[in-house]
Amino acid sequence: MVSSWRRTSSLSAAATVVAAAAALLVSVAFAVPPATPATPAAAAVGATPSVPAGPLDIAQLGAKGDGKSDSTPFILQAWKNATIVIPPGNYLTGALLLEGPCTSDIIIRLDGNLLGTGDLNAYKTNNWIEVQHVNNFAINGHGIIDGQGPLVWSQNQCNKNYNCKILPNSLVIDFSTNVTVRGITLLNSKFFHLNLFNCKNVLIEKVNITAPGNSPNTDGIHFGDSTNITISSTTIATGDDCISVGPGSKMIRVNGVRCGPGHGISDEKDVEDIIITNCTLKGTTNGLRIKSYEDSKSQLKATKFLYDGVTMDNVSYPIIIDQKYCPNNICSRSGTSKVAVTDIVFKNIVGTSATPEAVTLNCANNLPCQGVQLHNVDLKYAGIGNTTIAVCKNVAGKTSNVAKELACL
């Protein structure tokens, strides 16, 4: 996870806080300007729209599902109507900017597959499919949004330098309300698979997100400055965070999610009211993790988190709070923190750990973590020796029904 780029525009890495739970040939990107409302006179005479009203099948408009022909202009043409239908087939596209404001419900029915071109010149921003300023938007179906990340992953240098060139996110939804993403598959994104910014009332349900475990920065779902987000019955296996909760997000509910491989379930900067329940993490490099950059310059907080009913299957560091996070040693080490971590509850967390440290609470001496609770936690190191340990520094809280070796509070 590279938290400096959680938003569609770059965030300062120094100001970013992460609380963690984790992949052809079009040279021109097209954009559609917002529709201009008809004048009263035109409306009175019943002006004829430029395209038929109602659902539009992009194949009927001329798109070819051969995986080679550019389907970009046909999707942009269909966007002018209330429903876009992607029929069975493989449709190659460059950047798609789908802008509102829209006066009616918008639905994309994905029955076929969208392929993101490997020509990076086709993306004028850091996004492939971007939906903006839409109320009552839904994308559903059983098709695939395939970022074709293997074509470009070798060009990702973000693990070495914050000021790297960002590869395109696959599906980005910004400044939108009442959003549903259901049933689709997101595959091999070049960067993040699904990225939401400044959205309200979002349901993500029965979605599959897949990329190899070694694919760089292919977070499954990320959102920032968003409110009332529900993620349900979704399977995520990526090379980075399965779910990352970004800056300014509140009222987050995650239920029935299967995660792994990947880095776990994460959160960032001024994040409040997070409930994660009935989830399974398998083989991830972290489990439920709250982390903050050691060189953060802003006064930030992560508060009111509940993790309840999570099963770990060979997960490294199943429970971890780290106020001294410094990935790849590319941040400055101040030794202190400006990030307040308070009221964090880990409850009914069971399973196996791939590391002897099953619980790691590493808080700053100048700003200790407060109100951390462990209840009904049963985690066992599955490796040789079977010695399970907990490491706790500068943290205040309480435990109940926790194995003696994990009760470090």
Automatic annotation (TrEMBL):
It is found in: Secreted, Cell wall. One of its GO terms (molecular function) is polygalacturonase activity. One of its GO terms (biological process) is cell wall organization. Keywords: Cell wall, Cell wall biogenesis/degradation, Glycosidase, Hydrolase, Secreted, Signal. Gene3D superfamilies: Single-stranded right-handed beta-helix, Pectin lyase-like. SMART domains: PbH1. The keyword Signal applies. InterPro entries: Glyco_hydro_28, PbH1, Pectin_lyas_fold, Pectin_lyase_fold/virulence. Its main location: secreted. The keyword Cell wall biogenesis/degradation applies. Its EC number is 3.2.1.67. Residues 1-31 form the signal peptide. It catalyses: [(1->4)-alpha-D-galacturonosyl](n) + H2O = alpha-D-galacturonate + [(1->4)-alpha-D-galacturonosyl](n-1). It comes from the Eukaryota. Belongs to the glycosyl hydrolase 28 family. May function in depolymerizing pectin during pollen development, germination, and tube growth. Acts as an exo-polygalacturonase. This is Exopolygalacturonase.
